Amino acid sequence: MSELVSTRIRTTAGKLGLPHLAEALNQYAQRADEAKMGYLDFLDLVLSEELAVRDDRRFRQGLRLSKLPHHKTLENYDFSFQPDLDPRKVKDLATLSFVEAKANAALLGPPGVGKTHIAVALAVAACRASYSIYFTSLDDMVRNLTAAEAAGRLTSKLGTYLRPSVLVVDEVGYQPLERTEANLVFQVISKRYEKGSIILTSNKTFSEWGQVFGDEVLATAILDRLLHHCDVISINGPSYRLKNRLAAIERDTQVA
């Protein structure tokens, strides 16, 4: 490839918003020459590589905006430590059919069993599949919505929790809510109903949600919309955090 043609292609690629093509042109040309590619094969190579780069850039940008506390995947989850949890149920969720159907997923269990890990892993998978995602604890969401309502910006702030294809709501039940706060949660659940997916984690059974939301009627209304299309996974096992802490204590004791 002549330097003149190479320069023209790089300039055109830049104008088309294909920076990777401009940077990797010589590498593509060398690969095509070594493989004796035809014109169509070379074009397929260039377009496929550019699409992969663009998808990776979008994925990393989606993760950056998601507010996820970490980016762990299901490969990092130790299913052997939770023998009562059927891995197939979690892996079925990882197919994201529930996201495509705008349905929900609920992960229930005591603290430390890996609910947030699984919720985040599902969100990461959804982001990889080009769905927009957003993570929040219930406490943070309520606090932000309450402040927005006081400032007359509730409608605008609700958009933060309504726009994403997948909203992860973590730690439902750790702090009881006032009725006004519970009503804000109801607005989010109600407006997302059959329009976007929710992945939530909770240390409370659904029968205890009346106490969490301070009103049995309101809790029932929330559950009615949330559970209409929802996969529920209960994890009733030991705590990862406690396991690690006990192991550390045991090591310290042995050293002493």
TrEMBL record:
Pfam families: IstB_IS21. SMART domains: AAA. The keyword Nucleotide-binding applies. It comes from the Bacteria. Belongs to the IS21/IS1162 putative ATP-binding protein family. This is AAA family ATPase. InterPro entries: AAA+_ATPase, DNAC/IstB-like, IstB, IstB_ATP-bd, P-loop_NTPase. Residues 101-234 form the AAA+ ATPase domain. Keywords: ATP-binding, Nucleotide-binding.
